What we know:
CATH superfamily of the largest domain in chain A: MetI-like
Low-confidence stretches of chain B: 1-30
Shape of chain A: extended
Structural class of chain B: alpha/beta
Shape of chain B: globular
Radius of gyration of chain B: 19 Å
Largest sheet of chain A: 3 strands, antiparallel
CATH class of the largest domain in chain A: Mainly Alpha
CATH architecture of chain B: 3-Layer(aba) Sandwich
Mean pLDDT of chain B: 84
Helix content of chain A: 55-70%
Strand content of chain A: 5-15%
CATH topology of chain B: Rossmann fold
Low-confidence stretches of chain A: none
Number of strands of chain B: 10
Strand content of chain B: 15-25%
Distance between the termini of chain B: 21 Å
Oligomer: heterodimer
Amino acid sequence: MLQNNKARLRKRARAEWRFRSYGILSLLFAGTALVFLVSTIVSSGHSAFFKTTIELEFQLDAERLGIDKPYTRENLQAGSYYTIARRALYALFPGVTSRPDKRTLSRMLSPGAELELRDYVIAHPGKIGETVTLEVPLASDYDQLYKGHLPRTGKHTRLSAQQMERFDRLVDEGLVHYRFNPGFLTGGDSRYPELAGIGGAITGSFYALLVCFLLSFPLGIAAAVYLEEFSKDTRLTRLIEANINNLAAVPSVIFGLLGLAVILNVFGLPRGTPLVGGIVLALMTLPTIIIACRSSLRAVSPGIRQGALAMGASPVQVVFQQVLPTAMPGTLTGTIIGLAQALGETAPLLMIGMVAFIANVPATPLDSSASLPVQIYLWAESAERGFVEKTAAAIIVIMTFLILMNLLAVIIRSRTQTKVE
Amino acid sequence: MNTVYSMNDVATTAALIDVNATAAVSLSSVSASGLTAKNVNVYYADSQALHDVSIDIYSKQITALIGPSGCGKSTFLRCLNRMNDVVDGCRVTGSIALDGMDIYAPEVDVVELRSRIGMVFQKPNPFPKTVFENIAYGPKIHGLVEHRTELEECVVTSLQKAGLFEEVKDRLHQPATGLSGGQQQRLCIARAIAINPQVLLMDEPCSALDPIATSKIEDLMWELKENYSIIIVTHSMQQAARVSQRTGFFHLGDLVEVGTTENIFQNPVESRTRDYITGRFG
Lengths: 421, 282
């Protein structure tokens, strides 16, 4: 009997050990996958936050620029900075004389070089006639070569041996610099990878989320409060409840179709704007907020309701002065998680046309705009090699926002937990 | 069988229940608080929880309602400030009158009624706000105070009346949930008396508290009865004997007997009361 018992105990201990190791193994697997994912994205994306520039001496000759006096903004903008930029580069290579050779050499500069030169002159019109030293961006292929993303040999190389040799000479002379690229975070999209920024997408996503929050938060709370605190338990309310729960599981692309069919085609709101995107995302977020708010309302101790009622508070006062404030942290947590979900949604935004190439940073929610997830989608589709790092960097940006939002939810939750204790 | 033991009835039909009539010598010194229940029946969905309960509550006295669990004493208490209104399927018949006005009459405003009949619950239920806001809530929603200083005064007096002020004066603006259980319960009492009710209902106010906190609440009840009529539902017969002047015994939805506490405990008329008090059941 005792022998039997011992054997059974051993068996039980073994089963426990087995179960624990399964758990640890699956955690290890998930952890490895996460580390792999994050490290891949960070290693291929971090360089997009930096740019490669070349230091050149520009002779700001008024005649060559073709700028008439007075130096008004309009006149300055009309100048032909391309010529000046090219000449500054040619000056470093006196041996390059033939036209085709010069053209090849000039492709080392990004179109951004000309723009930065123009912006500099507009800001400092007094410098016209002088020679200034500026750092201007290099073309994407050279940028990628410098960052080590472009192979120097093999069939995937995009630059000739001569081009690389000339570039290497500039690097050796210390004229090529590796700088932080603030334009990536503030600028709009561009056809040229080295100039493309995610600022437009961030702003578009921000406006869409703002619209989404302003619509779904009050509506969601109103619906939850009514269903939880005031409605009678009838067949109709139960039907509504079941449908709200089902809505939370509807694929987001369906909401996009709804937006396309109703908001764009029936109400005629402007296509591809954060306003419409926000409305569609709000429809998607509503069920999440309603469910979160209702469960936190349900978690409020009935003692608080009874106490307030017994004090002579009316049912509306009970709800809005005592119950809802108590349920607010849980509701906010659910809302933030719903918004984080909305931030990552791509499909509904594609349906309502937030997928166009927009180079501008939107000024209002009524301007056509990109959004973070769609920007990632667009860049991932682009053929240019320079967009690979941009895609990864955009993913880093969206993940940072998601982590921050979730962190906020965790902070709200833990702060209220300590308060209740 | 409907047993009606109201002090008034006893006085007029003294022959019927002699003991209670002699116990009613103090009748002249006390007066009805204005809270009278007559033939109250309560139904939950299709089961009846109370049968023809009639009782007069005396002013500036503590009335204890005792009886085994599920006997309907809490249900009766909750009828007195219409807290049963919010219970689905609960129906009340008969009449409960406060100063001659039927509190179940359609024209009665429940909000106003509850400002006249305060309630303290079994489990301390302070609002998850500061001590100050807990007390200030009632005066604010009933518009009893006009400006901030008046409100502060009201909060301080209520806390003083509840014997809590000295303990919490340095933490008025800290969460009330941080107080101990006994302090929370006294806070709930202070909250209830902040709106100056006529009657205070207490539903087993000490059942979640330790003996020291309990004795503090009982002392407080002694002081409060100078100004309020108190009805306390309690499971503890010792507590009923200690604090109350009158006791009503409930059993299976009937108010079996009501009389002075002394008589109920020493000279009960009904055998059921005697059995319960001597611990033969319950």
